[in-house]
Every structure is written in structure tokens, then in C-alpha cells.
Amino acid sequence: MPYLTVLWTLILVLALAVSTLFLILRRQRQRSRAQLEAQANAHLEEVAAADSAHRYATETREAAHASRIRDLEMRIEAALEEAEQSRRMVATGLKWDEGSLNMILDACTDLKLDGCLVSNIVFVPTDAPRSRQFVAQVDHILITETGALVIENKGWRGVVFDGRRPSSVHAAFGSLFDESTLNAPFAIQMVRDAPGIITVRAHLEGESPCAQVRRQAQRVSDLVRLSTGASPWFETCVLYSHPDAVVYAKGKDSTVGGAATAVVAGAGPLRKALSEFSRRGTAALSRERNEEVIALFAGYGADVRRLGVYGN
User: What are the domain boundaries of the chain?
Assistant: First the structure.
């Protein structure tokens, strides 16, 4: 009997041990499965995060690339528009400025001036707003070693009042205008456009030829300074070149910025103004510097006419 008791006791102990071992193994399997599931979920989250980061980086690069393409397309469009404006100006500029070109060349030849006359310079000014690209066109620049002169040509016909009130010429003219609105600088053109029709065009203040030529001189000065480092002073002149124009002008205008602008009509007054310019002398450049400035303007499609020793 004691033998059987011992045997059953051993069997019971073994059963309990096996049961305990089974429970322990099942719990270990459950923990292992949970750990594997956690690791798998963490891996999936890492993969998802990496995929999201990759998509974001790809979308960011594509957006930046698209932005660069749009910017380049806008620049190309602006460049094409600039080129088209330049082409139109180059195509038409010298044709209607030919009279003033020959008038200036004749005066320079008579005065035996040494230098260069550049005409029809077309460029993008530094003050052009980015939102609205435009080009500037300068009629003539006379470059000598005693100074530089920007000449704005006006091929206006008819009767022109530049800086002079019409009533100062004849009282009858005063009755045609409200002269209280004429603040210098200004220019008024009266021209017969058709039989029995006389058109009056008023160019007031900032739209006057004197204001225009000073604005162009500043733009040219900025272009030269940024491109060559030189800072010559550009004097200014308004030339009325049409043979059928009758011009009443003060001769000089200094209403904007204090700098005097010569206002001349025809060959004789032009020759006198150029003679005064050549004797006066301003912030002159050396021959070497002048050649650098001339090359700059030639690069913008300007017509270049060399004078005196500059032609050698």
C-alpha cells in the first residue's frame, strides 16, 4: 500500500509539473507573439512614416521644380516681349530719327568734335518694375572727352511752345489755353492734322520733353554705372528737328532737379548748343573709358558714328 501511495504521489507531482510547464510555455508563446506583433506594427509604422516622408519630399521637389519651370517660363516670356519691343524700336527708331541724326552729325563735323554719336539705344532700365517689364529707348548720346550729352529728338511739326506760355508769344494764343494749368516743364503742340482741323497736344510736367530727357539721362547713367563702374555726368538736350516746326522755347530749362536742359530747334541753335557743350566740360572720361561706354551701347544695338580722332 505505501508503494501505491508513493506512485500516485509521483504521478500527481509529474502531472502538476507538466501542467505548470504547459502554462509557462503558453504564456511565453503569448508574450513572444505579442512582441512579434508589436515589432511588426512598429516596422509597419516605420515603413508608413518613411513612405509618407518620401511622398512629402517628392511632392516638395516636384512643387519646387514646377515653380522653377513657371519662373523660367515667365522670364522667357518677358525676354521675348522685351526682344519684340526692342525689335520694333530698332526697326522704326532710326527711320524717323534720320533727320536729327544727320543734323547732329553735320553740327559735330562743323565744330570738328572728337568723340562718338550713338543713336537708338534700347535697353531695360534698372527702375523697370518686375511686374511690368518694359524697355527704354534713347534717341542720341554724344560722347566726347569733355562730357556726354543725351539728346531727345522731337520730330514734331506745327507750332510748339516749350516752356513758354502761348500768351507770351501772342495774346491771341492765350485765349486758346487755360494757362493756369501750365506748370513747368511743359510743351504744347498745335498741328493741322487735316484740312480745317487743328489738333492741340499738351505734354505736361513729367510727360514733357525736358522731363523725359532727364529721366532717360538718369537711366543711361544707371546702366553705365552698373555695367562699367564709370559715373559720367550726362547733360541733356531737347532737339526739335522737323523742318516745318515753328518752336517757341526758352532755350534752357532747369525746372527739374536744377540741372539745365538745352532746348533747341533746327541746325543753327543745335550747333550753338553743341559748341557751348564742347567748351564747357563736365565730368569727363578718358578715351579708354569712353571706348568702354561706346562698346556697351553698341552691345544694345545702337547705331555708332565715330567723329574726328575717334574714327581713326
Answer: 96-311
